[in-house]
Design goal:
The protein is an alpha+beta fold. It folds into 2 domains: 61 residues, no CATH class; 71 residues, no CATH class. Helices cover 22% and strands 43% of the residues. A hairpin with a 2-residue loop joins strand 1 and strand 2. The mean pLDDT is 86.
Amino acid sequence: MGIVTLSDPSGQYEAILFQEGLNQYRDLLEKGASVLVTLQANVEGEDVRARITLVEKLDEAAARIQKGLRITLHDKAPLPALSEKLKGRAEGEVTLILHLDAPGQEVEIKLPGRYPINPQTSNAIKTIPGVAEVELV
């Protein structure tokens, strides 16, 4: 059995991990690793006892959970580069938000078909000149 200290911007927490889980997740539980942890919690008096039941790499969990991308453009110039970045295994939907010349006006276009949805694709799209914003949704 082990006690694992977890932290996020809100603070630090401790959780118990039994031997089977320790053997299974040891490689993922390194200092500074970004992981998604599933816990089972019990209240004992005023204390909360947390037990780790699952550990996953955060990027893998995000890719599994994400359903689409919402991409905001200021003009149509980035469309050819965007088309290149959206080639690959089809995982989710993509919606483009195109700001029009008139202030406060925009058009939302849901692209037909399915596209690769993962943090790597999202980051690659963010580097395209003319892309204002990329959101995983």
